[in-house]
Write a structure and sequence with these properties.
This protein is an all-alpha fold. The chain contains twelve helices and two strands; from the N terminus they run H-H-H-E-E-H-H-H-H-H-H-H-H-H.
């Protein structure tokens, strides 16, 4: 009787590739990460990008997803949840950079940097994470602007660092794209006002109104009113200074 089993040669090549990647990655994790200890393990520095590319067999996108999944669950060890303050942020940022290097189109590293790891209650670590977001946004600002816009909000409201928030907001506005909401492009104007930079804010609003980029009548009216309010505020400030 003839066997109905299909020969191994009929299995698609991409299936073999995925199996090979999974096997190599499993061996790699056990060799590189798994320690025969019941203690909480610190986050170590990642291997080089070249090593990961070798183990990826050319499929760096799959490797990036596996790395992201592993990193996402790193803070759960032995049934214990690590706080972000307990994680080595120098190593964490190195891992996030590696994932982006393997798959530049992935959203995970910058999403987690913006909404997860930026919630750390440690100013130094928070600043390092925001710096990571800023530098990685500059690599592809037309796609990554939303993460820097969020970083500007964090810098303003969490760090109360208006100059840093302004730097981020101005960078976002500089790389404005069609899919970017108007409020994001104009965020730096309100930060300037918060900083007391009334003249600069007035110039920005005046330039915005003169450029013709605003088409919504409500937005035009809003900025006309803001410009008028800033002019009155600036005149009042000048008057006080002259009488001092």
């Amino acid at each position: 009787m003839k066997s109905k089993e299909r020969p191994l040669s009929s299995v698609p090549k991409f299936i073999w590739s995925l199996l090979a990647i999974a096997l190599c990655m499993q061996l790699f994790w056990h060799q590189y990460f798994i320690k025969p200890s019941q203690q909480i393990q610190p986050l170590s520095m990642p291997p080089s990008e070249n090593v990961l590319r070798i183990f990826s067999f050319g499929d760096t996108t799959t490797s990036a997803k596996l790395l992201a999944l592993w990193l996402q669950n790193f803070d759960v060890q032995q049934g214990y949840f690590l706080s972000y303050k307990q994680i080595n942020y120098h190593a964490l940022i190195a891992w996030l950079k590696l994932i982006l290097a393997l798959d530049p189109l992935t959203e995970y590293p910058l999403f987690s940097a913006s909404y997860l790891y930026s919630s750390v209650q440690d100013e130094d670590k928070l600043r390092r994470m925001l710096d990571f977001i800023y530098n990685q946004t500059l690599v592809d600002p037309t796609r990554r602007w939303r993460w820097l816009a969020h970083a500007a909000i964090v810098a303003k409201h969490r760090l109360h660092d208006l100059p840093l928030a302004l730097q981020y907001a101005e960078t976002v506005a500089k790389h404005a794209s069609k899919d970017m909401p108007d409020w994001v492009q104009q965020m730096h104007i309100f930060i300037l006002e918060d900083m007391g930079e009334l003249e600069r804010a007035r110039l920005e609003i005046g330039g915005l109104l003169a450029s013709g980029t605003l088409t919504d009548p409500n937005e035009i009216l809003f900025f006309q009113q803001r410009l008028h309010a800033l002019e009155q505020k600036s005149n009042a400030t000048d008057s006080i200074q002259r009488h001092e």
